[in-house]
Amino acid sequence: MLHFNFRAMAISMLSVWTTCILIGIPQEIQAADAAGTTQIAKWKDNKKAAFLLMFDDNTPTQLKNAIPELKKRNFIGTFYVIPAKAQFYTEPWKKEVPSSGMEYGNHTYTHSGAADAAKLDEEIRLANESIDKAYPDRKTPRLISWGQPGTPKGTWLVSKEQVKEALIKYNLVDRGPFVGAAIHLKTGKDMIAAVDKAITAGSAGYIVFHGVGGDWLAPALPDFLQLLDYLVSKQDQVWVTDHISSHKYETERDGAEVKVAEATNKQIKLALTCKIAPKMRALGGETYTNDKADPKLYDAPLTLITQVPASWQKCQITQGAQKMTATAANGSLQYSAIPNGEPITIQPATP
Questions:
Q1: What is the pTM of this model?
Q2: Strand partners, 171
Q3: Residues ≥6 apart with Cβ < 8 Å to 211
Q4: What is the residue extent of each domain of the chain?
Q5: DSSP assignment letter at 181
Q6: How much is the CA Rg of the chain, to the nearest whole Å?
Q7: Are residues 215 and 61 in contact, defined by beta-carbon separation less than 8 angstroms?
Q8: How many other CB atoms sit within 10 Å of the CB of residue 320?
Q9: 48-235: which CATH topology?
Q10: How far, in Å, CA of 99 to CA of 110, rounded?
């Protein structure tokens, strides 16, 4: 008596049928089915995480130790300066540091507190004016990072709601709860763990420094260098940047959408749009949406990854007047584009 495995026969026949169909379709047309499919990278250059190095009070050892070591590694730091303290806010802070690529954050003008909303407004306004003066080529208004200063007891008398209103008025972005080196993270090993935590979470991690190898609340210089060297070793996974750059990218990414307008074997056309609704962090870990945010202040390019036909090895990407050439890898093309800008056109580059 013969026994037939009907299930096996059905699978075999389906396999043969599918193979026959695919043989009749050219490979380029099969690839074109996916052409134009686009992913918005979680972080710039498709890194897994972002990491921010923040420095409070423009201390002397930041000039002596931190900034030279950052520059050696092409890293950016965000420095929360106190313009009214002349003994610390010296000439290098006014010109040399800003021109080196470092970014400034608002830490109030005097770091002495705020008795009421009017005093808070004055402290923030004067600090912003000093920061804008340090970057004469920057357009204003623009987003500036905010780090609330730690002041003596009884000197910070404004409410969270008053702080929130002032931040919205002056286009400030709160960096979030204080996470300090030598306070919460005492060793190089502790700081490296913060980097690993950000990579695992796919988030923007950060550490706030005061002194570096001296002054006050300072980690030992070897621990600081251990952190920087670890970040160098993780540059394939971590985007080391300033607070505002990470905030812009995250906000735009969360509100972005890509639509395929055309996808043929000759060109791909995309529309990258973005609705700005920034989620702001506040002290205590609270978050709120700033529905008064000016979309014009969010102008950072996003990293896109678009599927192109396999035969397109080098591609030309055009968005308005901007043109660039990039190399695709296994039919995947990575490049940058501005949200809410002109349509994006991708074509195979001519030899």
A1: 0.89
A2: none
A3: 59, 61, 62, 182, 217, 218
A4: 31-44+255-348, 48-235
A5: B
A6: 26
A7: yes
A8: 11
A9: TIM Barrel (3.20.20)
A10: 23
